[in-house]
Structures are given as structure tokens and as C-alpha cells.
Automatic annotation (TrEMBL):
Organism whose genome encodes this protein: Massilia cavernae
TM region positions: 270-292, 323-340, 347-366, 378-399
Domain NfeD-like C-terminal: 412-466
Protein name per the record: Nodulation protein NfeD
Residues of the NfeD1b N-terminal domain: 43-138
UniProt topology in membrane: Multi-pass membrane protein
Amino acid sequence: MLICIPAANAAQPSAAPPTAAPPIAAQSTAARPTAAPPIAVLTIDGAIGPANADYVVRGIARAARDGKQLVILRIDTPGGLDTAMRDIIKAILNSSLPVASYVAPGGARAASAGTYIVYASHIAAMAPGTNIGAATPVQVGIGPGGPGGPGSPVPGPSAPADKEGADKKEPAGGGAMERKHLNDAAAYLRGLAQMRGRNAEWAERSVRESLSLSADDALKLKVIDLVASDLPALAAQVDGRVLTVLGREVKLATRGAPVEAAQPDWRTRVLSVLTNPSIALLLMTLGIYGMLFEFMSPGAVAPGVIGALCLLLGLYGLQLLPVNYAGLAFIMLGLAFMVGEAFLPSFGVLGLGGVVAFVAGALMLIDTDLPDYGIPVGLVAAVAVTSAILIAATAGVALRTRRRAVAGGPSALLGEVAEMLDASIGGEGWANVGGETWRVASAAPLMRGQKVKVVGRSGPLLMVTPVDYQQQGERS
């Protein structure tokens, strides 16, 4: 079939097709800059322990799930527990996001455990007026001459830097265990410094000599990467940096990025309360006394339930802390003596021994000299005095009970009025005496239902006489 094309169309000159306009959606996307992923901010304020370690570990994991580009740890700490510090450092080293440690605000510090966390971070920053260092590990039992003891060298930030032999320098004195902790801590911090390309020599001296630095001095010695006055300034300074995170390079785009602060949730707050040594000690003491009251008054239920819960919560809090088990044994022994005083009154001897054992155990319970992790002496004294008052009250009740005349037994039956259960046969029969059935004997004949009075006892046989000589009840 032949298809004819109109001549007009055939003769029309061919023109270049007009340039296609981009789609409206594409135009708006190209014109609008892509929003930078947000920055997560976690705050470590105070001594580092199980609660804020859990908060930081979960916060870093949540930031990775939520698509954040950077985690900033804002730090102000005097130090903390070694196990909690290492949990935080493990989370930083294994994070899929870069982590920046920022010692802020002005007047804050990253001492001891805080220094290790700063060195472990991908970016180390400080605010003006802050300090870092004094990373010597603190242990219980360190005496004069040991690290942290009165005889150990603790030069300040202006101490002369003797580079030759700095790596070898150790505090005078100290036993093998102190040197072991010191060498382990120095090697750990030096390894973190080498990983991040920071001043490893000063890091080791900070451990061995308890050195500290201001923010400007730390920047000059390449202990940190930058000094920033606030979070927006920090975000602006790290913008465009390329960091190595788990073997891959990550470029930051933080200028103008939204900053989202992650506050501690209920789990962190509850854990913070439970891991307070004073609270844990009080919970354990209340638990023991609650169980004691339940045993003394079976069926009360409430003291037993509350006591069991307090005891378990107290023990849970203690197992997260560096507990001296000798101190814990003294506390349990003291509480056991106090319980024994309630059940086996020794007129205060057991109770007094229990108070002494409890005080000794409470004072040595927490196996660290770190700030915020000791048990106040005032609290120990208050608990001991309260226990002593309870023991004195128990002993007083025992003494009064001992002096009281016997209210039960055979002598209590004399003078009782009883009722005959049957007629006497051969001068003997059965009677209801005080709700109990006794064999009774009388010189006079007795009728069923007749009232009699107990006048004596011969073994299991009670001697009775009729209350009156009128017959009561029916004759059997």
C-alpha cells in the first residue's frame, strides 16, 4: 500500500529540535543543597562508671543506626573505673562512625580515664580553659612512694620535660603489683596515641608522672587536634576532614549540620542510682532487715517482698562495682550476727559484734580510691548507730521477758475453773480446762457439765473441787 505524504509537510524545512527542559523535580533538587546528616552529642559529666559507660556504648550504636555522620563526646570527668573506661574505648574503636572527644565547657577536665578516651577518639578537641592528663592509675593499698602516694612524683603541667629516659621513668618505690598496673596503663595509652598519630611520648609520661596540660599546651604538643570555643566552632573546624574509620575513609560535612543531643534515658538513670556504692549498701541493709522482720512475723508478706527486692537490687549494683570481697564478707557476717541477736538473744554480745563487723566491711567494701566511688564515713556511722539502737531495743525486750513471771505451764492452771465433760467414776473423770482436755480427780462425786476448780496437780492428773455442791447438767 502506498502512503502519500502531503506536499506541504514534505516541503517543510527540517529544524533542530528544541532543547528539552529539565524536569521540575530535577531542577529543584539541583538548586537545593543536600542536607548534611546530623551530629549526635553524648555527655560524660562526672566520674566514669557502669551507668555512663552503658549510656555512651548504646548512644554510639544508636547514632550509627540513625544515620548520624559524627558522634561528639562532651567530656568533663575526674576519672573513673577502668572497666567502664575500657568499655567506652572499645565502643569507639569498633564504631562505624567517627567519634570526636570534646573537653568542654571552659573549666572542664579530662583527667585519668578521660585522657584515655580522648586519645582513643578519631578527633580530639578541647575548649579554652580546660585541661587533660594525670592518667596515673589509682589503686587501693598504694602506700607512700607508690603511684598516687605521698612520696610519688606528681609534677604539674609546668614540670620540665626530660625527653631522655622519659619512657623509662617510674615512680620511686611501689611493689610489683603497682608497677604492673603502671606499665599496663602506660602501654595502653601509648598504643592509643600511636593509632591516632598523637604524641605518644607525652601520653606515657602522663601515666608515669601524672602530667597535665592546658588546652593550648596540648595543641602545641599534638596531644589534641584542635581547640574550639563551642560545638558550632568544633563542627566548622572539622568540616571536610577525612578520617579512617574501620579501614575506610570517611569525609565529614559538618558545617551547618544539625546537632542532636542524646540525653540519658531511664535505664541510664536507674543504673546510675543502683551503682552508687552508698545506695547499694543501703539497699542491701534494708533487704536484710526486711527479710528479718518477715522471719520474725511470718505472714506479714510486705517486709519479705520489699526486703527481697532491695537485697537483689543492692547485690546487682555491687556486682557492677569494684568490690573488695573481704569487705563484703565482713558486711554479711555483721548482718548475720544482728539477725542472730534477734532470734537468739545474747543480751547484746552478738549484736555488738555484728555492728563492728558491719562498720569494718563497709569501710573496705569498694576496692578503689576514685572520686565519687567511696562510701561516706557518715553514712556508715548512721547505719551502724541505727543497727545498734535496734539491737539495744531487742536486748532490752529479752531482759524484760527474762524477769517476767512464768505465764504458762502447769502453774498457770492453778485456780482455773473447768467444766466436767463426764461424770466422775471412782473419783476421776475428764474436764475441759482452758480449752484443753485434762484427766481430773476429786474426793466429791462430779456430774457432767459441773463447774470445778483446779487446786493442784499430780503429773498428768489435775486435782479439782466442785465450785458448788449443786448439780449442773444432767447426770450421766
